[in-house]
Write the structure tokens for this entry.
Amino acid sequence: MRETIRKKIELAPDDPGVYLFKKGGTPIYIGKAKRLSSRLKSYLNPSLEKVKRIVEEADDLETIVVTTEKEALLLEANLIRKYRPKYNVRLKDTEFYPYIRISNDDIPYVEIVKRRLKDGTYFGPYTTVRFVRDLLETLQRILGFRTCKFNLNRVKRPCFLFHLKRCVGPCAGNVDQHREAIEKLRDFLSGNMRDVFDYLRRKMELHSRMLDFENAAKYRDLLLNLSSVLESQGVAFEEKINCDVVVHAQGLFVVLRVRDGYLIGKISFEMEGGNLDDFIREYYVSGRGDVPNSLIVESDLDEMDYTSLGFQYVGKPRSQPEKDLLEKARKNLETELSMRGLKKEALKELMKLLNLKEFVYRIEGMDVSHLQGKHTVASLVVFEDGLPKKSEYRRYRLNLERPDDYEAIREVVRRRYSKHPLPNLLFVDGGRGQVNAALEALKDLGKACPVVGLAKKEEIIVTEEKDIVLPQDHPVLRLLIQVRDETHRFAVSYHRRKREKESLKSVLDEIPGVGPIRKKKLLEHFGSIESIHSASVEEIARVIGSVEVAKRILERL
């Protein structure tokens, strides 16, 4: 440690603040402390390897004193986002999770997003897009907020959603009514769900007393639909629990999100070398997760007062339902860890079996699908640490004059690896011919990486040098079968969608009122006849802007 840094540590104040270890003027680690003097003195005799590397590498130390712990938390999060220091651990999603965004417009609109890129108020993350879509569709029927992104100053007349009573119509002058709908939505998504349930019950009972049974049934159905959407996520508690439950081990964090007694999501993140304090900073302080009333954890936190972030309570379970939730979170964590452990062992075995020099961290798998040479497509899937990384899956359209699986493999390999780095292992669905085709294409590019295939009938593992036969229950074979099945599923689903689009085009051409523009909108939104069949008149009408044509489409299909 440099003497200048040692002196600055000894002179550090007792106030809350943020400290920055720097090298050449660039932060390499940023931290926060309730008392800067106490925290920084722990760096004088470091025991952790990471801390030793920080103090050995740093050539300067800067401290920023703030007034409160909350200011320290927020400042640290902002500085880490700005500088991305090499020694600060970072939170990684195990998969993409959807959010609900309410825009910052004068007349806000509501949308589902997977990235927090724009200004606005975000709620989430939620477990699945399907759940969020069903939830928003039900809430829109109840509250009437807008989901269109039109510039309302240019809208001359209300759209069909207004006439269907799905939107209160700020474009028709009902701005105050829409503002009230947005506030109710914010309140609901923040965890106060009972008000909406009570509203529906009151409306149902009111119309029932008025002998208006049609509207009473409408509110009853909305009430049942909202309940079923929320309960589809899992557990519903009798108590009004509004909390997040966080457990972690071996760099894996699992969060159960409970709002007003409903379990609305189970999400997981990876943070190598991170502790609970790091997770709270990355997840809540940076705004990735909305702050509930309570944060239930396995042990009390004493470094910072996290209630300053908006939590009313942070600590161990206080009631039996909270204890049950913590136990449920632990079981989910154990399940994910066991799955991850099995995958790691299989990857180590794979490395030995194929005589590879480096750990098989990243596997990319590809498959080709066609129907008698028509609509040829290829899929590329990505597995990291033995687990699928769906955000990096890719599809390829191939224009081959005749059916040729080997040429299709060669084309995909050339297109993929002329632009992207090679994986630790390339998997192709097929036997010796497919493996040789991939190796030839790599050679044409002047690149090389291990290639492995799986012959379908006998499940023989094919490499460049040899064929390997393993028992059906061998972990390496089971892992490669999983990669093969995923590449096949992804390729076939894309091929089927492409084929159905062609069929759908010809069917739509015969329906009066469906011109090129409407046909394009239907193809982009639904993609298949089956998807349109399962859609409601309202959903089709929302896409094409006409209830009459929507009814006609469903009649013809």
Q: What stands out?
A: The first helix runs from residue 3 to 10. The radius of gyration is 28 Å. The mean pLDDT is 83.
